[in-house]
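Worked example (supplementary).
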Amino acid sequence: MHSLLQAATAAQTATSHPLDGTAARWLWLVPLLPLLGFVINGLLSIVAAYQAGPADPSAAHSEESHAGHGEGHDDAGKHEHHEIPRHRYAGLTSIVGPGVLVLAFILAVLIFVAMRGAGGGGMEHPFVQRYFSWMPVGDLQIDAAFQLDQLSMLMVLVVTGVGMLIHVFSVGYMRDDPGYPRYFAYLNLFVFFMLLLVLGANYPLMFIGWEGVGLCSYLLIGFWFSEKANADAGKKAFIVNRIGDFGFLIAMFLLFANIGTLDFRGVTEGASALAVGGPVVTAICLFLFLGCAGKSAQIPLYIWLPDAMAGPTPVSALIHAATMVTAGVFLIARSSMLFSLAPVAELVVVLIGALTAVFAASIGLKQWDIKKVLAYSTVSQLGYMFVGVGSGAYVAGMFHLATHAFFKALLFLGSGSVIYAMHAAYHHTGNHDDAQDMRNMGGLRQYMPVTFVLMWIATLAIAGIPPLAGFFSKDEILGSLFARAQGSTIAQAHLFGIPGTVWLYIAWVFALSAALMTAVYMTRMMLYTFHGPNRTGEAERSYLKEAPWVMTGPLVVLAALTIGGGWLNLPEFAPLGVVGGLEHWLEPVVGEYTKRVIGGAAPVSPGLELGLVALAVVIAAAGIAIAVARLDPKMLVPKSRSPQEEGFEKVLVNKYYVDEIYDEAIVKPVVGVSRQLLWRGIDVGVIDSLMVRGSAYLAQLTGFIGSQFQSGRLGTYAWVLTLGVLAVLGAFTIR
Amino acid sequence: MLLPAQQPAIPMAHGTLPLLYTFHFYLFGLIAIVSALLFVTRKSPVAAALWLVNTMFCLAALYVLLDAQFIGAIQVIVYAGAIMVVFLFVIMLLNLGQSPPADIRGIWWKIAAGAVGLAIIAQIFAMTRSKTPATLTLPAGFAANQVATTGAVAPIAGPLFNDYLLAFEITSILLLAAIVGAVVVGRQRGEDLAR
Amino acid sequence: MLAEALFFSAVLFVIGVFGVLIRRNAIIVFMCVELMLNAVNLTFVAFAQEYGAAGQVFVFFVMTVAAAEAAVGLAIIIGLFRHRPTVDLKNINVLKG
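After joint prediction of all chains, the assembly is encoded as:
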């Protein structure tokens, strides 16, 4: 059976592909360009460190000047008033870092154009470029190969496009940071790994990208590692990610054990042999989802994402909004041939996604740090994406992934501009307050008008107000979820005895609640930051101003994408352009599996559909209205004088004490067992004492016993001799 | 002087007078054993040495009776006459002759040693059950005939200087080493003279 | 005669072993060793009667080596006596290790 699969796969590579000979043959260059950027920037960083000699006190100083604050901050200036000298190689880095991304994006666009031209109506088969045989092990053949199909092309464009904009933004944001080339090296490395992830033609290669982006996330979150909190956040992110990686690995093992191959085309063919809804495919999908829960911050492994805000804000934008965290969604879309066979697993995905959406949104209602609000918003929106792909609406999930990348990046970069301005102001006056806390902001719209407008565009988009991008993508997910609840293979499945239909309706209610709360907390954020009176302080106010154009420029581009993003996949009731563009685009990859999940159920009637859409819009508007009505920015006081929260508000501010619960329930026992049992007990007690010192003692003892035989007394020697003779003679006689 | 080949054949004792021969064999054997027993049980080293000399004399007699006359002579000259004399010299030198301290170990030692000894004897006799291949056995009386025809020395001298020449030479070097060693080890050191 | 000679030889050898184990005087022990050598010589000579002169040649060598060994051994004992005026084996245990 395995050899049959291999033969089939081999046959497929042998046939020609419409993309042969087009720009697609430079596919390998797309990830290689950022890798080259990493190498160059890394060398620049190392060479500069060499030339600078031992640790530069001024480099440490800029970290220590913020030592009083809990989370890491963006370093836009020093404590004193004089200008920090820019990094020695800042100029070269500013060209190489974003430059490779620009080149990669251009190449990606060219390949995209080739794809549109070659496929005609739609490219039926993926274009696989095989470079070399990576791991031929017995029956298993894993190649280093890239798979270019409509799904990976979408991701490549998102990653390189949004990545390019964020790189440009970073040129302004990280301008005075002493680790400037190191930052771009890590950022380029991240893009390289992300591209490996999306382009990989088999699970192991994807896993390399998966782990690589986890590594870069760790490096970038802990970028200002001289402050312990930042390093801790980086460690937390990596370790929690690893728990998910374990799930991914188990899923790969199960795949190999049951199908015999790990590349996507082979699994697609082999999946048909698995029992539908059987334990094998359900187990595979659940373990894959465990990986997604780790990487894409779903319950119970979302805890690292809010802490990850300790990294520089562009990092949060790129990694923790647009790309890395969406890898989980991409994985499920990629594995749609497996998930569509396991309705129970899909039900679990939908439920956890919806639960996460509502849970995170509720926490976001009461956060004061502007980045934390966005972090929980990201977790919540990721929940939405999982609801989408979990319910078999892979197109809807990917659509939301793309639009979310646009407006969440815009939100993060906008907040980055705000924080940049706040920092600059604080440094000019030597203030040590928290530059990220909304209670210290307020009324910024007069000082940063462009940012103000752009962020409102993004806020309306995320709330789901038409005709911005968020409305279309969110609405499609809600609609798909409702339709599945009415009838689908998921609805027919059962979880803990309760029919899927019930679960799906519950999930739908959760999703709507999350939408409401999203509108509320986002409006709250805007009100407290940009509206109302300014609470920053008399002296600082004069220094607040708009960020330079190198930072605001990408914001404008993202805003344009946010406005126009909806046109990617217009629904039928709003034929303002090409209807269902993305759906047609992704049809060859996931269309069949979506149909499988729908299972022949009748589509929702247009009237009902329009009603649902209206409901979503009403909810969004209501959320904004509630926020405007109930929240008065004039009631706020700066953080240093703010009262402590009470009651349920306190629970929300403290994020339901989840971190503390994990600490008590999991971390402390594990550390305790490790310390007492594994370290003191086994390592010191058994291995060190028993085995190492014990064997030494044994050798000593043996030597001592041996030495006792040398008594020096001839009489004894004679006796032993004689007895020996007796023994030898005895051997002869007895024989 | 006649060459051995020309000498008349001398009748051997065990050819013409077997009974007398056997009697003497047993006589000397028993005396040897008794002397040996007395030798190990004497308190005085001089007495012990002299009993050992007696044992050696009896062994020499046994050698002669076994058609190894040359060896018998050598036994008397070298062993009893030289080696035992050296022993006696040393005993005298160290003044061990008079009132020797009791140096025989206790009764339990004797019993244990006796048991070990009996065990060894038993094992030796168990091993005598094995048979040697017939091809090695010489015809009866061969040694006696050899001695009769060529004399007592020739049967040894022949192999010694032909087949075993290398061993012979090495033994001579061994003797040299022994002489040097004995002189070096035994010579008086300066501080001992001062005492 | 072979069997009788072998018997005598075995008994003499065992008496020599007995003496080595029993006695504490170094010189007497030495002489017991000589006795053992003699017993072995008797064995060789007895076999020489049966199987050829090689046995006697061997006896020749044994005697030579015994002589050499006696000379050196006695020199050692004399040296020991000079070091400590005793030849009692009980007191000679400097090689203890």
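Two points are worth noting when inspecting this output. The interface with chain A takes residues 105, 116, 119-120, 123-124, 126-127 of chain B (CB under 8 Å). Chain B is about 70% helix and 0% strand.
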